[in-house]
Amino acid sequence: MTTVKRPSGPDSTASDPAHDPKDASAGESRRSNSTAGFDDDPPNSGRRLRIAPDSPFADAAAVFAASDLAQLSALDVSAELFFNEAVEHLHLYNPRPGEPYAHATIAETVRRFQRAAKRPGARRAENSKGKKNRLPNFPRFRLDQTFYNWVHELSQAEDIAEFTTVLGTTTARAYIQITSGMLLVHGLPKFFARCVAGDFTIEHANATAYACRDVKFENLPLIDDYLAERRPDITIETFKKSLGMKIAVLEPLEERVEEASKRRRVDITTARDGTAYLTLTGPAPELQACYIRIAAFAKAIRSGNIAPFSDQVEPGTSIEDDRGIAALMFDILTRTCPQLNIQVTSNNTTTGEISTREIPLDLPDGASLTPADVVNAVNAGLASGVSGSDNADRGNAGRGHTGEYGPASDGETQAEVVLRMPTHGQWLDSQAKMVTTVPFLTLAGECELPGVFSDGSPIPADTARRVAGHSKTWTRMLTDPATGTPVDAKAKTYQIPANVRQTLVAKWRICTIPGCTRRAENTEIDHIIPFDRDHPESGGLTRFGNLHCLCKQHHQAKTDRKYSVRMSRTGVLEYVFRHGITTEVAPGDHPINAAHAKLFDEMRPQDAKSVDPPDPRARSEDQPMHGDIRKARKRPGPKATGEQPGWVKNSSMLSPLAEKNEWIWDSGGPPPF
Q: Where is each HNH nuclease domain found (predicted)?
């Protein structure tokens, strides 16, 4: 790690924010400042706690403190690396080449902008004086900027891939590491110094980084001042709640909710025990309302209250359900089947009358939906006066086109179209595919080996058979009997056939670049050696050993030559990045498929002839080793026949990297299974 001098003054810093945690001058608030009244405390106990020398936690506390310092140093270095990359990509002028890029701190830059806002001519006057010692502002500074957005705006896909390779983590975790480091080192330097001094733990640092990631630059100095004086003798939960209230005072909650709304999303995480976690991230009011609605629905069913469903059930109907509230909420959320309707809110501009109608959009199974179909259905519905529910909010999935549809009897009618998610077969087939790999013997009911989803998470054998039973397409895949990894599929054109794509998805499971977690079925297929359309015989053919999965972003980065990738050996990719980092990526093994191969072997007839492989020690000196390759127009020796060793023509079935006029030595013996 490069150690850089600390800022010479409170308003300046260098682009290398790395600090030596052992440096006694690393922060204004030292451990001794927060241990007043504890004369017998060890010198490295910043938080107000007393540990007896003979306590089993005495040595553990020192280890925990060292761990905190190591993690803080990692955040420091992460911020340093990313900041230097950002300066390079922004092409900022450094008057002192070879030295860190010097710039004003966030706090000083905020003061400059605020002074300029109060006195419009202040900045112009300062610039006209030509101050030689004036440092440039913090790069890409805006008062309303946040470190979350700052990092994401200035990041490059290939640089993040290098972070994930070195950290051995995912892209999302790398972004958290970088954003946290930048925020703590540059946005909250006083608090970071207290963390380094031991006043606060790494848990406090991580909680602060998460809470402040969307705080505007203009408010960070105020939060830093608040944390610089914060008492350390409180629990982590009390600390987080107090910090949250401080942020709420400085920034209107409406703005933070709006920022959260911009990043609303749905994520799924699968566990290895067959369960999964669906995570909805977004504004709290909407998610709270969604939760309360589902809970109310479940409670009504559990209590047998049919009043809310009087328009759906006949009078006298009773509801009896033994499912718990939690199970009912899950079933309601996952089994709701959205319909394809058009909801039209008509506003008669002459009478002011507002009415809401639902117009069914009936399409034959397999037919495609066009904008003209929507417009025609609306016109027909308005003309025929189709009536419907006035519940304007029920089942809305997204807004469509707003405009004028059809003639109105008493003035102009404005119609707002709200389309619900379609459920017809063609749309589901094209949009909601679920790739599942199931062992053949499991399908046949001969074993209970689990199936797996495309991300590698296992599913019970019964569930796998049920899923396969509803599938319209099955694809056979051959796997390595030892590792279970899919080994080959054939393609004769540049376009990727479906069977090759599905085999690649099963082999790699995710985008192959280190750290990326995008599922393989949502990626693009990359030719490792680019396909030469003018001279296909030159290489880059569509064959299994020349293909792998890359998401759109990383595929484009490879096309732009931001990094390189090659097949270093059969089935293993080698990535080379621009900062001298080289790493290999191999497909994961597949223990379920390997166990399946063993079952196949056990099911062979017991009286089948067994042939032991030839003893390599009995091989003559001039006899090739099994798998040796030679290039020749004609066979370089005896032909392999049955159990007799000899030469066979190499092909992509034997080796994904097979070339023309290659021969491979087969030492004889039975196949693996």
A: 499-556
